[in-house]
Amino acid sequence: MKNQIKRISLQEESKIKSELRIEGYFVTEINATALTDDKTYLAEMKRAFEYNGNIENFNWLDDVMTDLYWLKNDKGYILFINNAQSIVYPYPENAPNNFSRVLFWMEFWEEEVENVVMGGKKKKFDVYLVY
Asked: Whole-model pTM?
């Protein structure tokens, strides 16, 4: 399994989301503009992944995103980032750093989870950039 970043059009989004939900994936979305502001990004990720606690900083966010047990999903996670064109060159200052966290989580669920979590299982964590 190779986690992937895919670029899709707004017209494709609804159909793809529906298909992924039918396949059993946890499907969620954020707006790309959330990547431009740290506080907004933390709040959006909390909302998108239905986390009940507070997320005060990025270390905390990484802990949350490498856990996700409360979602009770054995198949995997799909994140749609809407309005992706708003974070391409010239990109806002915080967007690259915040997006790099998504890459870390993709890698974690693809490989690392089996090495650092007792009984951890590899899962899909794909990202769809919606233009």
From this structure: 0.94
**SS3 at position 3:** coil
Q: What is the pLDDT of residue 52?
A: 96
The rounded Cα 81 to chain-centroid distance in angstroms is: 8
CATH, domain range 5-130: 3.30.370.10
Q: Strand 124-130's sheet: what is its strand order?
A: 5-8, 124-130, 76-82, 26-31
Report in angstroms the alpha-carbon separations of 56 from 93, 101, 129. Answer: 20, 15, 26
Hey, where are the domains in the chain?
A: 5-130
Say what the pLDDT of residue 122 is: 97
